[in-house]
Design goal:
Blueprint lengths: L8 H8 L5 H8 L3 H10 L5 H22 L3 H14 L7 H24 L4 H11 L1 E2 L4 E2 H7 L9 H16 L10 H4 L1
Antiparallel strand pairs: 1-2
Helix pairs in contact: 4-5, 4-6, 5-6
Length: 188
């Protein structure tokens, strides 16, 4: 089974490709006197793992911020790279940053789910759970059915699907759900 990838091959080249400009190459791949002095004072063999874990945690925290706003991998990894470079830390290989980015995205999704579920009543939770069960009328879950209907006005069943979608939304949150579908005067 292949590993999940956060970045496309093109995004990997953009983020991790070897620069062709000599100054940019030196900035990323050559340690200056200050860097070497820091490594000698802080990076003894007994505490290298601690620094690696601290860097991993920092990248996870930094990557979770853009992951809150997007599922795209490139901005997540770019934020982690910017953090590492601004702290003058060596960047790990792309696969490591992708794994951290996937963890950051999972953390952001969990945070989003918790924020969405926080104020739900038990009745609303039950209605949402019902949407995930297979409905014999449509032979799949209502969530899958809602996601797949055609919005094309030429589609012969589009009007019926739109009405059914509205009725499904009402079954979850009551008549107030109409406010998202119809002008205010018509929703009351």
């Amino acid at each position: 089974m292949s590993r999940r990838a956060l970045l496309s091959p093109e995004q990997r080249v953009r983020l991790f490709g070897i620069p062709v400009d000599q100054a940019e190459m030196a900035r990323h791949y050559v340690l200056g006197a200050e860097d070497l002095a820091l490594i000698r004072t802080k990076r003894r063999a007994v505490n290298r793992l601690g620094y690696a874990l601290a860097d991993w945690r920092a990248c996870l925290r930094v990557g979770a911020d853009p992951a809150w706003a997007t599922d795209r991998g490139e901005p997540i990894v770019q934020a982690m790279l910017d953090h590492l470079r601004s702290a003058n830390l060596l960047t790990p290989i792309a696969a490591v940053l992708e794994r951290i980015g996937l963890a950051a995205r999972a953390r952001a999704r969990k945070k989003a789910f918790e924020a969405l579920a926080e104020g739900l009543t038990d009745a609303t939770r039950e209605a949402l759970d019902k949407l995930l069960r297979v409905d014999p009328d449509v032979r799949r879950s209502r969530v899958a059915w809602l996601r797949d209907y055609s919005e094309s006005p030429r589609h012969p069943t589009s009007s019926r699907c739109s009405i059914d979608s509205i009725m499904c939304a009402i079954s979850v949150s009551g008549p107030s759900a109409l406010h998202g579908f119809m002008p205010r005067a018509s929703a009351d």
